[in-house]
Amino acid sequence: MTDLPETPPETAPEAPIDTPPDRLSVNPRSEFHDWDLLSRGIGIRYNGTERTNVEEYCISEGWIRVAAGKSLDRKGNPLTIKLNGTIEAWYKS
Question: How many folded domains does the chain comprise?
């Protein structure tokens, strides 16, 4: 009988944690824009209320940017306001 080294029992691989990034923007000119992540669909909850008009968010700093009505700046981009509060993000699909 030969001495074979003991092999550890096989364990199931851990499921990857599927969380959105800390910061994301819908503006293609932003450095935080990522079309692949946005195409999956991201839900944002701001202070317990689900928001659908979020232009950009940052979970660690606790803010979102939303369009301020139909106002545009001189370059044609929507004017945004920054709202501070509790932010939660998740993938919809």
Answer: 1
What is the distance in angstroms between the CA of the first residue and the CA of the last residue of the chain? 54
Dump pLDDT digits (tens) for 29-79.
Answer: 999 999 999 999 999 999 999 999 999 999 999 999 999 999 999 989 889
pTM surpassing 0.85? no
Q: Which two tokens stand for residue 20?
A: 């959105």
- Structural domain range at position 62: 23-91
Q: Is residue 35 part of a domain?
A: yes
Which three-class secondary structure string do you get for the chain? CCCCCCCCCCCCCCCCCCCCCCEEECCCCCCCECHHHHHHCEEEEECCEEECCEEEEECCCCEEEEEEEEEECCCCCEEEEEEECCEEEEECC
